[in-house]
């Protein structure tokens, strides 16, 4: 059965309540009776009534309410219109009824503008008929798509009793009738596939499946780009709202500028840190990945100055650099430089201190895993170039060094280390004696090396570099001492001055000097050197030029600038021009007929100073500073005509100079 018109009486014309029961109507007027109601167990209700004189009736139907007084806003009106015949009529109410509620109903007719009611009766409701969902269109779509649902019993007037569920998510229809509902797929659905069902008065329809289209990535254009470039992804089924396309370069999120169903434009993220990655897209609640890789353009180094100095500012011109300067890692050889400023086409860096083994190196710029390296080398113009910061030992105030024609030797860490300049390798050998920190001394007479250990016994040793053999020699006949000066002239060895060692006051200076003759293994005392009657000197540096030895440094007090020359022929001492500054903890070397005092500590020194002595003019000059980081208590030697300085200590900077070695490169 069906009904012509069903409505909730919110504003029914007053005439429906302005009339009498059928008993008051004249006998020649139409009549109406309320018969009964059928209440199916599945819900709904079928009302029966009876009328006469149908031709005089303008409308007929039923009035249903929770209240026996039929209050307007609680009443349901079933309007069937003008009847076509007299007798029994029926009206069906499939929805709008709540389960287990008592309802009152009565039939009515409208004639000549007046309403006449039948008797009031009641029934217990089984609720409304369940909604029937017959079809949805389309069955596949997008977030934001409009979907039409068709069926029966889908709506009850203006009450908000119709509910639509997409899986667990409820949405409100944007349009509705008893047989159609229109919804929009919201962004907050839980999955890409879900059932759609309708609930009316808490009775649910069967569900029909709906699914979102799966996005497809077909191409990436261009497949290679650099930071902040715009890249286009082409394919199908993207979201037209840019924010609903979550695009990733590998694991790095990228900003989406615009999107259509077939195209997404995004910006290469500053956070991207790999050479290449697949493009991953989260859209339509699905995660898809490109088949091809997107690649980041490698940095391109185009030009830079051919030479520079360490610690200098240095400009690199190129392309595809990271636009955020600190994200660029610039290397000179294997050492990273500090990036000061820059953009995608220019970088300004501070040249690192080293190491630069050949005083030249290549430049690399690295943003991701792969670095771009310059085809040409850059020369380092420092007078002193750090050639390594990975010495295999730590040197700080050891007993010194000596050199042969092709090798240099350094005493450090209870071992004798041999340096080969041809392959820059170090090898070590064991010592047959213990080294007492800072107390011993060493020299080389052109054939053998000699070591004074400053120990009480067995304190003088000879080393043959050709055989790598040590031989114990006659003990030093003077007092045990620390900080002794030691040098060789011809094949003779000279040892003297310094300070008393353990057991005797450290403040007592020693002035005596001795000569050792390897030919007879004997010591002979020679004229003393009185440097200072009361304090003396400790660890004076010495160098030998043209058969004469020169001693300087070793200051223990202010005013200790004096220096001396020892005449190897007459074995006499003579004062020479004082060194320009009070210095101690020094080392020395000879280069091109001049002597050098370096790795200095002192009251007014930085540790960078290198003092040059010219025996021809008996004068001191400042030589090129030793690098850019000061040090004292280091070592120095000249090998194959090239000076080297290394080791030492610098307390004021966070740089381990003890494992560094510098080479003079200026001449």
Please name the defining characteristics of this protein.
mainly beta, 667 residues, Immunoglobulin-like, 6-stranded antiparallel beta sheet, rod-shaped
Strand order in the sheet with the most strands: 20-22-25-24-23-26-27-21
Low-confidence stretches: 1-26
**Overall form:** rod-shaped
Computed CA radius of gyration, to the nearest angstrom: 52 Å
Task: List the total number of helices.
Answer: 0
- CATH class label of the largest domain: Mainly Beta
Quote the CATH topology of the largest domain: Neuraminidase
What is the number of strand segments? Answer: 66
- Just name the CATH architecture of the largest domain: 6 Propeller
Give a verbal description of the structure.
The protein has 667 residues and is mostly beta strands. The protein has no helices and 66 strands. The strands form 16 sheets. The chain has an eight-stranded mixed sheet with strand order 20-22-25-24-23-26-27-21, with no helix packed on it. Strands 1, 4, 5, 7, 8 and 9 form a six-stranded antiparallel sheet that branches. Mean pLDDT is 91; it is low at 1-26.
In short:
By secondary structure, this protein is mostly beta strands.
Helices and strands in order, then pairings?
Elements: E1 5-8, E2 32-38, E3 45-51, E4 59-65, E5 75-79, E6 87-93, E7 99-111, E8 114-117, E9 121-126, E10 132-137, E11 140-141, E12 146-152, E13 162-166, E14 169-171, E15 175-176, E16 180-184, E17 193-200, E18 203-204, E19 208-212, E20 216-221, E21 224-225, E22 230-236, E23 246-249, E24 252-259, E25 263-267, E26 276-283, E27 286-296, E28 300-304, E29 307-308, E30 313-319, E31 329-332, E32 335-336, E33 338-342, E34 346-350, E35 360-361, E36 363-366, E37 371-373, E38 378-380, E39 384-388, E40 401-403, E41 408-412, E42 415-420, E43 425-430, E44 441-444, E45 449-452, E46 460-464, E47 469-472, E48 481-482, E49 485-489, E50 492-496, E51 499-500, E52 513-517, E53 522-526, E54 541-545, E55 548-552, E56 563-567, E57 572-576, E58 583-584, E59 587-591, E60 594-598, E61 601-602, E62 611-614, E63 619-622, E64 632-639, E65 642-649, E66 661-664
Parallel strand pairs: 11-19, 21-27, 29-38
Antiparallel strand pairs: 1-5, 2-3, 3-6, 4-5, 4-7, 7-8, 7-9, 10-12, 12-16, 13-14, 13-17, 15-16, 17-18, 17-19, 20-22, 22-25, 23-24, 23-26, 24-25, 26-27, 28-30, 30-34, 31-32, 31-36, 33-34, 35-38, 36-37, 39-66, 40-41, 41-42, 42-43, 44-45, 45-46, 46-47, 48-51, 49-50, 50-52, 52-53, 54-55, 55-56, ...
């Amino acid at each position: 059965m069906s009904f012509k018109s069903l409505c909730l009486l919110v504003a029914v014309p007053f005439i429906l309540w302005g009339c009498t029961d059928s008993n008051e109507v004249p006998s020649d007027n139409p009549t109406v009776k309320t018969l009964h109601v059928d209440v199916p167990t599945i819900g709904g209700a079928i009302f029966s009534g009876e009328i006469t004189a149908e031709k005089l009736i303008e409308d007929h139907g039923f009035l249903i309410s929770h209240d026996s007084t039929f209050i307007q806003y609680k009443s349901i009106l079933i309007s069937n219109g003008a009847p076509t015949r007299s007798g029994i009529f029926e009206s069906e109410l499939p929805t709008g009824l709540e389960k287990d509620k008592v309802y009152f109903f009565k039939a009515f007719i409208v004639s000549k503008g007046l309403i006449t009611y039948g008797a009031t009766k009641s029934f217990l409701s089984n609720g409304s008929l369940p909604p029937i969902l017959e079809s949805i269109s389309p069955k596949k779509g997008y977030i934001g798509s409009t979907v039409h649902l068709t069926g029966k019993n889908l709506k009850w007037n203006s009450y908000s009793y119709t509910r639509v569920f997409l899986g667990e998510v409820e949405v409100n229809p944007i349009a509705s009738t008893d047989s159609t509902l229109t919804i929009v797929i919201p962004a907050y659905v839980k999955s890409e596939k879900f059932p759609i069902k309708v609930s009316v008065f808490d009775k649910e329809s069967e569900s029909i499946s709906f699914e979102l289209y799966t996005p497809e990535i077909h191409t990436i254009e261009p497949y290679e780009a650099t930071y902040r470039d715009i890249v286009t992804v082409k394919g199908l089924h993207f979201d037209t709202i840019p924010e609903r396309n979550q695009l990733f370069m590998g694991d790095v999120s990228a900003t989406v500028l615009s999107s259509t169903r077939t195209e997404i434009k995004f910006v290469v993220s500053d956070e991207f840190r790999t050479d290449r990655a697949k493009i991953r897209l989260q859209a339509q609640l699905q995660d898809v990945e490109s088949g091809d890789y997107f690649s980041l353009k490698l940095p391109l180094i185009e030009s830079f100055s051919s030479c520079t100095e360490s610690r200098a500012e240095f400009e690199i011109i190129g392309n595809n650099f990271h636009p955020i300067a600190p994200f660029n890692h610039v290397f000179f050889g294997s050492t990273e430089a500090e990036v000061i400023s820059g953009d995608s086409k220019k970088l300004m860096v501070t040249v690192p201190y080293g190491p630069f083994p050949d005083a030249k190196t290549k430049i690399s710029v690295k943003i991701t895993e792969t670095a771009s390296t310059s085809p040409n080398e850059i020369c380092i113009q420092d007078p002193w170039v750090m050639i390594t910061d990975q010495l295999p030992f730590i040197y700080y105030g050891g007993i010194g060094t000596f050199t042969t024609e092709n090798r240099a030797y350094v005493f450090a860490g209870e071992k004798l280390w041999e340096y080969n300049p041809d392959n820059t390798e170090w090898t070590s050998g064991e010592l047959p004696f213990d080294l007492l920190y800072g107390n011993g001394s060493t020299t080389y007479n052109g054939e053998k090396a000699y070591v004074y250990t400053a120990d009480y016994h067995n304190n003088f040793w000879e080393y043959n570099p050709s055989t790598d053999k040590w031989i114990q020699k006659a003990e030093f006949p003077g007092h045990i001492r620390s900080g002794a000066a030691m040098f060789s002239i011809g094949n003779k060895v000279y040892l003297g001055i310094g300070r008393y060692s353990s057991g005797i006051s450290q403040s007592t200076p020693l002035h005596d000097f001795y000569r050792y003759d390897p030919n007879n293994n004997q010591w002979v005392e020679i004229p003393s050197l009185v440097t200072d009657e009361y304090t003396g000197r400790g660890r004076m540096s010495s160098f030998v030029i043209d058969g004469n030895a020169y001693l300087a440094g070793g200051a223990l007090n202010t005013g200790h600038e004096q220096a001396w020359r020892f005449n190897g022929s007459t074995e006499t001492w003579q004062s020479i021009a004082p060194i320009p500054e009070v210095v101690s903890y020094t080392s020395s070397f000879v280069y091109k007929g001049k002597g050098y005092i370096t790795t200095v500590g002192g009251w007014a020194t930085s540790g960078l100073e290198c003092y040059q002595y010219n025996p021809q003019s008996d004068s001191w000059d400042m030589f090129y500073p030793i690098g850019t980081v000061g040090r004292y208590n280091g070592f120095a030697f000249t090998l194959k005509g090239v000076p080297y300085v290394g080791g030492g200590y610098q307390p004021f900077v966070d740089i381990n100079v003890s494992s560094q070695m510098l080479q003079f490169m200026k001449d």
